[in-house]
Amino acid sequence: MSKELELNAPNISSNDLTIIGITTTMNSFSLAQHINTELLNNLTLFKDFESYDKEKDQTNNFKNYYYYNAPYRLHNLLISNKNNEDKLLFDENKTIDYIYVLIGRDHRKHAKTFLNKIKHVPNIVLAQTIHPVPNTKKQSLETKVLAQTFDIFGEAPINITSKKKNKKEKIESPSLNQFIEDLDFNIENVMFEKSLFLAYKIIPNEAIIKLTQNILKHYSQENIRPIQLENYHLTLAFIGNISKKHIKDIIIVTQDITKQLNEIEIEIDKVGFFEGKRNNFVIWFGIKNNEELNQITKTIRKTYKENNINYYPTPFYPHITIAKIKELKEKEKTKEKIETLFNIPPQKLTLTNPTLFESISIENTTRYDIIQSF
Question: CATH assignment of 194-373?
């Protein structure tokens, strides 16, 4: 039996987990649902799994479903091996579509059960334990397509009738080592924190919606990513990553600040932009100076600081982000023209309840979930 891992375990070793490679024609949602049915799991779409590329010094995100089996202290992760930017989690083998990981108490026993149960799932081409490296003649599913096992850590494909590997033989794989580091980082730092910000939710009127459509059409030849209308917001304070146990404190403090707030009428009076990281270009609606809104923001930030709630102390420039462009062409020309291109009559909107949002990354897109409205 491997050591028991709690959710806050600081270290994971190669002995603490089993990794199963899955090749299938199904999409991730269908596969997760089938696994839930066969194993009585509750895999749900979770935050993206972050994998660090040391050579390029960049982080790649992969779609991730997660379930924690509390009685067995067992982490279950279903991770896409390929993301929508064609990056591979395990780049040694492109034939694997998903990685299923079991971490915790009796992970080997549960992996064996997993492989026995998953044979009932249709459209599975291959399901193979890839860590620990298979050392028996019959490790994979008996499927019509299956003719060989796959070792994604650099070894050539081997026939299922080949001789047993020496049990003492160890495979030192850079991919395995990096993946275990990524698992440790995600479980400890990413998966169980929430990225929070306090904002007013914006409900755009018809005139703003029409203007947005015109802007998107104008830049349609660029690599533009629109913000969904339901995600429009005006940020008051960006808190960033915070542990679950501190969220209640933030809610209590924010409730005290906002309980006597009245509705605020704001006025959108321009279209603007700013340049983000890596030549990303952010298009936004600008808000006419509003002293009441400014004072509310100052009070919130001051109270957060007094109660040791950390937030990013960036200057408050009230705006509503409507789109992002990656690697904009003719940046300077666009900068000069954008305000005159989209000269708009003032648009009035009413702000009601400040809301605490969680920002969730899923397949390199962002979703905003409501934690608490005040």
Answer: 3.90.1140.10
